[in-house]
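Title: Request for sanity check on Glutamyl-tRNA(Gln) amidotransferase subunit A, mitochondrial prediction

Description:
We are preparing a figure and want to confirm that the structure record we downloaded matches what your pipeline produces today. Could someone re-run it with the sequence below and paste the raw structure tokens into this thread? We only need the token string, no images.
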Amino acid sequence: MLQNFIPTYDATVVERLQAHGAIIVGKTNLDQFGMGSGCIDSIFGPTRNNWSEDINDDRFRIAGGSSGGSAVAVAAGLCYAALGSDTGGSTRNPASYCGIVGLKPTYGLVSRHGLIPLVNSMDVPGIMTRTVDDCASVLNAVAGPDVYDSTTVKRPFESIAPLEKQMSLKGVRIGIPVEYHCDGLEKEVLETWTVIADMLECAGATVKAVSLPNTASSIFVYSILNQCEVASNMSRYDGIEYGHRSQEDSSTEQLYARTRAEGFNGVVKNRILTGNYFLLRENYDKYFQKALKVRRLIADDFARAFKEVDVLLTPTTLSEAPLYKDFVQSNNRDQCAVQDFCTQPANMAGIPAISIPIRLSSRQLPISLQLMGDHFTERNLLQVASWIEKQVDFVANYS
């Protein structure tokens, strides 16, 4: 739909990076309009994970999605940092599979101006780097109010000072959500989660179990809200103002229909149709309104948890990067339900979350963990992530 489209202005995050001296080297691959968790639904074809044992045919590992191209670019050393969009985990998921750091900031901390919207109420520009320090540097450059984006917070952003190299964890409260020990969680991911929790406790942190009872409902609520907002956001692509335009000229209605039939892939069309079904007058209360109510319950779960703990420690993904040939056995919707289980609730609540690589699995593939904090606690989140990063030294040991 936007294959030959050249934007008339830069996104705010791009402008701010350039103002700080950054060089933009190119655009990266992603699932069409960010709809996917494998970076395989793109007109350019699937993105291959550079940790793959074999990148030929269909025996390669997926990069994760939707921002898999950005993750691979960073992991391969092609760039210092990359941007992605995070709606349900689309920066943390590929960061996990590719063995890099992926940050989803608090909703409203970083401007969405110039970000093509998927789900307006959850989309956040995400940051991918090789180290936590690099991630903090990029966040300092792009965060803060923006007059062009009414969803950004109005208070000035206080730059995050250099992270402490010898941080004490005494007094830091770490929560382990029991609901994240779920079906499908691979043994090696669980072992890694347990080892890091023990490591934090031995270093003086208080580690305790907490409950987020509505987590299991999060992915279903997300699916409904996602498809409803997609149905609204994709209506702008009609072949009239910008983007692909069909050669159909029999009527305006046929021009719209043919343009959208040619420009959207099956995943996008499916979400548009489903979203419009949920928004029908007879279905609005039963689906959309009810999903909004459960979303509030999910956010309330996090609010209660952060009265007891400072940071939540969870897996980022349930497994290491799957093989492409195995991943495509399930449809896009079912894959998103599995791949985004641990990452999506943070978007529902608008809280910050970061994925950091910990070690390699027995198949020599990255295993990562996720840290989540209360709104606008990026400094504390990055500091704890930096401490873990120093202990495991993933970059030095495995990259």
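Thanks, this matches our download. The first helix runs from residue 12 to 19.
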